[in-house]
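Review box. Two proteins, two foldings.
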Amino acid sequence: MKVTPEMVKNYIQQGLDCEHIHVDGDGRHFEAVIVSKEFAGLGMLKQHQLVYKVLGDRMGPIHALSMKTLTPEQWANQA
């Protein structure tokens, strides 16, 4: 079964409280913008590790996942 951006989005939302999430991709390569209060106090590496932990075994068919992870405060200040 081909993985869709919507599936990746749903997987992440099932394990992470997201204020905003957007995922694009072609079935193997994905790009995500993820905004979560759960990232507060964590460095970028720890934030990405948290997302990978949420995805778990579902990462198997995903060849690459590029992420931009932000706290709600960082997201608000980006505009």
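Next protein.
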Amino acid sequence: MAERARVSSAHISPSAHYTGYVWYRHQLADPAFATDLGRWIHGVLRPVTWGARVGFGIDLENLLLQRHLLIDARLTQAIEQAGVCQVVEIACGLSPRGRRFTARYPSLRYIEADLPVMAARKRLLLQSQGWLSQNHQVKAVDILAGDGRDTLANLFAGLDHSLPILVITEGLVNYFELPVIEAFWARLATQLQAFPQATYLTDLYPNLQEHPRYRQLRWGVELVGRLTRGSYPLHYRNAEEIVAGFTRCGFSATAVLDPDQHAQALGLPTPRLPGLVRVIEARCQGLTAAQ
């Protein structure tokens, strides 16, 4: 409870509205996912994002598309080639991924999860469009909760622990200081070890001090922090530190994916400068498999 007194995850929602509008703009989401708040935030940020793109070669929307589409691609591969039939998207916000993937794979079980207020809003949105079903549900979770009804343990309790699972968090990690998010990863790894095959996909912005636009990146990070009512710390300095961090948290294998290397396959232009975002694909070895 002391941890929860120091750290709050409630400031994430404004960025969920912004990204929800970006997905809609790029034809990745139905109009129902575009909110007035998201449209307003996008308009406010337009001069800033234009200046960053023209002046520094940093395209915020392309960064968002890079991470979103690469996560989609890895999820598609996991479903079609690795037999994943259960997906949990934590901090789902206004992500359209659950809608798109359940429409594409009707037998896929997809659980969207977020803080109680955001989860209630997402549930209402999906219900109003007739998109919820027995296989597609929305549940409340607080990744910082150590007890109570909104814990990770309760979120995973209703899933089939004899089948493979894949967990996604997008746009979540860099809202928290590293010790806090590593504690979440450790709790998540503990839950995933109960499944025979478990994969975790997330995006992460490393502390790339060698990046040619590092100063501008730090300025942008501070601006995002102010707009979303929280800090936006950058974690790790390179792929080796990322792998070591996930190993400490209980993951048995970790791949660090650079979206720049997948730009053509994702249908995106190659950035003018080295990319800022990484997609992490971490796996857990199930306890039964380890025995």
